[in-house]
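Fold it.
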Amino acid sequence: MTAPREPAPTTTAVAVSGWRSRIAPRRGILRVWNSANAILQIVVAATGAYVFCFYVLGHSTPLLAATVTVSSLGLVRDARPRRVLETVLAMLVGILVAELLLLVFGSGWWQLALALTLSLVVARFLAPQASFAIAAGIQSLIVMVLPTGAPFLRLIDGIVGGVAALLVTALIPRNPRRAAMRDGAALFRAVDGTFSTLTQALRRGDRLRAERGLEKARALQPVVDDWRSSLESGLAIARISPVLRRQRFDLQRFENIRQSMDLVTRNLRVVARRVVYQSDDGQARPVIADVLAELARGAELVGRSLADISLVPVAQSLLTAVAERLDPAALVPDASLGDQNLIVAMRPLAVDLLTATGMTGADARARVPRI
């Protein structure tokens, strides 16, 4: 007698399960924590702009004073003052176009279509970013749908909102060091995973594992780009914010490491392709695997030095010892041409990791033996 089968999950049950995975409490709390400064910025700027326009300027419905601040600040990773200013200018363009059309033609459905068209055309002409035109179009629609108050009052509200957004960007800045640390740690975790997979492939002569390592290496670029975005944003904010003066040194140090790690990831892809090619014969290569594992250890120490700068000389010493051994003839005597090429591919990888420790490019290249 066969056991009764459990009923298949219904569509509703699958949907509920999917929502539960998306609304994971821990992830939600982490998102809120990471966005705490951004939320504070938006609330302070929007409220301050609204209060100023309502109580000081006497505007009865300063809606745009608040919406401009919310839209320009947002919760995005890139909170550079330049990006905030560009968004503010886009919205002011939309408001101005709509105000002029209201003054000349009044309100109505065809006036709304005309205002939206002109706002998008003008904004697209002024800036290459699609988001610039969309921001202008949205504000233009708001003005046309809610045509209340004297002419150009909403333009003043928008200007007040833009000024408030720029002020809170400098005076209540988001924590760029924390964001840079988070994105940097994500990159080093991904790099470590790539190193680990490639090392195991060399130890076992495993072609499938090598291909998996190559896939991981190819997936590193978006992580590098995320780190670059957060660092560029942080450095731009730190230059204008007196609150972040002490973080400038750390942010610049992170940026120097990021530039080197960008090259590391590119060279790691080259190494990964060589590993895939060499793994075709199914032969284990323990000596080369050990060298790659030591480079991985050096990269790990560089990653840990983001939080602890005292680890920089330790990482530099370890990577120097590895770089000085990267002579194919001495490391693996009687090696095949493919193995020699794999070791040669590791040499620029070691140089880039050494520059990530603060060593100059010339000094790092001098550590690698001439061949």
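The longest helix spans residues 248-278.
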